[in-house]
Design goal:
By secondary structure, the chain is α/β, with parallel strands linked by helices. It is built from nine helices and nine strands. The two termini are about 35 Å apart. The structure holds pantoate (PAF). Pantoate binds near residues 61, 130, 131 and 152. Pantoate binds near residues 28, 58, 61, 127 and 131.
């Protein structure tokens, strides 16, 4: 696997790949890679002639400086995981890459102001700007994003439609530990006890999915899940919303049969975790 640290080198490499008619698959990440990322890499390797993974912890998408400072890093482990999964190129630019970020104007149709957007102001703006820069540098044919960051995926689809229509965005299901906990780089910051408490997040999601077969009122489902899973101090719920999978706007009932997503953000200790489940899909 090639490791490229300079933007210009990456661009030259991409020009070469394109001249040889390669199909480029791209997996953008912030590192501390886990099985969720590995599954995206494997999909890309299976469907493209070149797979490029990027690692860049983008400061402009962190509304909380402490969260940025404590974001876990493990370049050696990441390189091993990528090599094991047959990634061709790791693009890992230095901190100066932040200076190349431009303000990309897209219409996020209000999706940047709700759910994560409400609690992490500016997060999606920063995310859109870095993904746009990475798309410009890497020029992928296909880009792979996990559904664990469901709202991010929706906004990346808007970025694609408005600025990069030739790129195909490939969504990929959330990968979970056996316990049900969604895989996330931030899990590395959880103590044993916090990790145990965090299981309630996926348990709440599974419970809502199960009960939604009989109960259609979003309010009833939501209230019951909050009572059953978030009434103790161990886990601090930030939001639990049952929303339309297209618009991300809360729904009042699930009778329409349209795809619905249940989204949760909660703190286990100081670690903020998000998870979601798609129902009626
Ligand atoms: O999901 C992530 O890891 C990041 O938000 C991304 C897409 C790499 C942009 O920094």
């Amino acid at each position: 696997m090639l490791i490229v640290r300079k933007r210009k080198e990456m661009e030259a490499l991409v020009r070469g790949y394109k001249a040889e008619n390669n199909k480029i698959g791209f997996v953008p990440t912030m590192g501390y890679l886990h099985e969720g990322h590995a599954s995206l890499i494997r999909q890309s390797v299976a469907n493209n002639s070149i797979t490029i993974c990027s690692i860049f912890v983008n400061p402009t998408q962190f509304n909380n400086p402490e969260d940025f400072r404590l974001y876990p890093k493990n370049e050696k482990g990441d390189v091993e995981l990528l090599q094991q999964n047959k990634c061709d190129v790791l693009f890992i630019p230095g901190d100066e890459f932040v200076n190349d970020i431009l303000d990309v104007m897209i219409d996020m149709k209000g999706a940047d102001k709700i759910l994560e957007g409400e609690f992490r102001p500016g997060h999606f703006k920063g995310m859109v700007n870095i993904v746009a820069l990475l798309f410009q540098v890497v020029q992928p044919h296909k880009a792979y994003f996990g559904q664990k960051d469901f709202q991010q995926l929706c906004i990346v689809q808007m970025l694609r439609a408005q600025k990069f229509p030739k790129i195909e965005i490939i969504p990929s299901p959330t990968i979970r530990e056996e316990s049900g906990l969604a895989m996330s780089s931030r899990n590395a910051r959880l103590s044993k006890e916090e990790k145990q408490n965090a299981l309630k997040i996926s348990q709440a999601l599974f419970s809502i999915r199960e009960h939604s077969k009989q109960i259609w009122s979003a309010k009833t489902l939501k209230d019951q899940a909050i009572k059953d899973f978030f009434s103790s101090e161990e886990l601090k719920l930030e939001y639990l919303e049952i929303v339309d999978a297209q618009t991300l706007v809360p729904v009042s009932d699930l009778a329409s049969g349209l795809p619905i997503v249940v989204c949760i953000a909660a703190f286990a200790g100081k670690v903020r975790l998000i998870d979601n489940i798609i129902i009626n899909s």
